[in-house]
Sequence to fold (133 residues):
Amino acid sequence: MTDHRTAPRFDTTTAAGIVTVHCAGELDLGCARRLREVLLTPIHDGARGVVADLTETTFCDSTVFSVLAEAFHAAAARGVPYAIAAGEVAVTRPLQLLGLDRVLPLHPRLDAAHAAVGPAACSGSRTAAPAQP
Fold:
């Protein structure tokens, strides 16, 4: 049997103090700790805004949804604008079934998520981060 999983990948870009965390591939328990780190670090460091870009994510399990909710609450507690871009059905449908689409700041496209957190968030320097420690 062949394993057709797409390895998780995280990259970050920063523009005008707004950090975008680009998440690609299949996200699950195995990479949840790294995702938590790349989302919470800019929030704790005082970023002007944080966007979780899940537009290239092909699968999320419940641990990833927990991390997204934790980042949302951490950002709200610190007054950091936070948004999630998620257009893939594999991501949006479970969020809808769980009712998280009514709680989390979800947007169907990356540009809409950037607009929600502030201006000039669409360009910047990209830094690759390994998916697992």
Notes: DSSP finds four helices and six strands in the chain. Confidence is low (pLDDT under 50) at residues 120-133. Residues 9-119 form a domain with the Transcription Regulator spoIIAA fold (CATH 3.30.750.24). The helical segments are 29-44, 62-78, 89-98, 110-117.
